[in-house]
Design a protein that fits this description.
The chain has seven helices and six strands; from the N terminus they run αααααββββββαα. It is α+β, with helices and mostly antiparallel strands and 222 residues long. Strands 1, 2, 3, 4, 5 and 6 form a six-stranded antiparallel sheet that branches. A hairpin with a 2-residue loop joins β2 and β3 (141-150). α1 packs across α5 and α4 crosses α5. The longest helix has 24 residues, at 39-62. The radius of gyration is 17 Å and the shape is globular.
Length: 222
C-alpha cells in the first residue's frame, strides 16, 4: 500500500538521505570507488548496497555518530555537494553575507546534515529498491527516480537530483525528494524563517552549539 504524500514526514526524507550517505560509505569501502561517469549507474550502485549496509552496520552505527562522521568525511562528502546544497538553503541571504559567514554556514550545515541523519539512520527498514532510467532536465542535470519497498509493504517514490561537475567530469548528488518532499526545499524554508527572525550570525551560532556534542566538543569549551 502506497503512503499518501501528505503523510510523509520530514523525518522520512532525512532518514532516507542518511541511508544514501551510508550506502555510499559501504559501497566505497567494498569497491574503493563508486561510478560517477553516469548518474543512473551511480544511483543503482548505491541502491544495491543500501540493504546490506543497514543490516551489516545497524548495531555498530546506532550508537556511534562519531564513526559515521569520520566515514562521511573520507568517503561520502566527496560524492555529495554539500557546499552547493548550503548555498541553495541559504537562498537570498547568501548574496548579502560575507565570505566568512558563508564558509561558517557551509561547515555547520554539513555537520548538521551528518548529525541529523546519523540520528535517524535506523528509522527505515528497506527490503528492496528499484531504480528507473535517468531523465535529463537539461544538459548536465538529471533526475533518477526509484521505488523503495519497506518491510511493512509500503512503497515510496524517491527521486535523486544530480549534476555534472564540469571541472572533474563527475556526477554529484545534491538533493533527494521523497514522495514530492524535497530535502533542500524543507531546509530552505526552515532556515529562511530562522534567518529572518534571528539573523545569520545567531543562526550559525545556534547550529554550532547544537553540533558541539557531535563534534566531540564538551560543554563549556570554546
Amino acid at each position: 500500500m502506497r503512503k499518501s504524500r501528505a503523510n510523509v514526514p520530514a523525518l522520512f526524507v532525512q532518514a532516507f538521505f542518511s541511508v544514501v550517505l551510508m550506502a555510499m560509505v559501504a559501497s566505497i569501502q567494498a569497491n574503493n570507488s563508486i561510478p560517477q561517469d553516469d548518474p543512473e549507474k551511480m544511483i543503482s550502485h548505491l541502491s544495491e548496497t543500501i540493504i546490506e549496509a543497514l543490516n551489516d552496520q545497524r548495531a555498530e552505527l546506532e550508537g556511534n555518530p562519531a564513526k559515521i562522521k569520520a566515514f562521511a568525511k573520507t568517503y561520502v562528502l566527496p560524492y555529495v555537494d554539500t557546499p552547493k546544497m548550503a548555498r541553495y538553503v541559504m537562498g537570498r541571504y547568501w548574496r548579502t553575507t560575507t565570505q566568512e559567514q558563508q564558509e561558517a554556514f557551509v561547515d555547520e550545515f554539513t555537520t548538521t546534515l551528518l548529525r541529523s541523519y546519523s540520528q535517524s539512520l535506523l528509522k527505515l527498514k528497506i527490503t528492496s529498491v528499484s531504480v528507473r532510467p535517468k531523465i535529463e532536465e537539461k544538459p548536465g542535470r538529471v533526475t533518477v527516480s526509484s521505488e523503495v519497498v519497506q518491510a511493512d509493504g509500503n512503497k515510496t517514490d524517491v527521486i535523486y537530483r544530480a549534476y555534472l561537475d564540469k571541472k572533474n567530469q563527475k556526477w554529484m548528488v545534491y538533493d533527494v525528494t521523497v514522495e514530492g518532499v524535497s530535502m533542500l526545499l524543507n531546509y530552505r524554508k526552515t532556515y529562511d524563517s530562522e534567518f529572518s527572525r534571528s539573523g545569520v550570525d545567531a543562526v550559525i551560532a545556534a547550529m554550532k552549539e547544537k553540533n558541539k556534542e557531535f563534534n566531540g566538543v564538551p560543554d563549556g569549551s570554546v
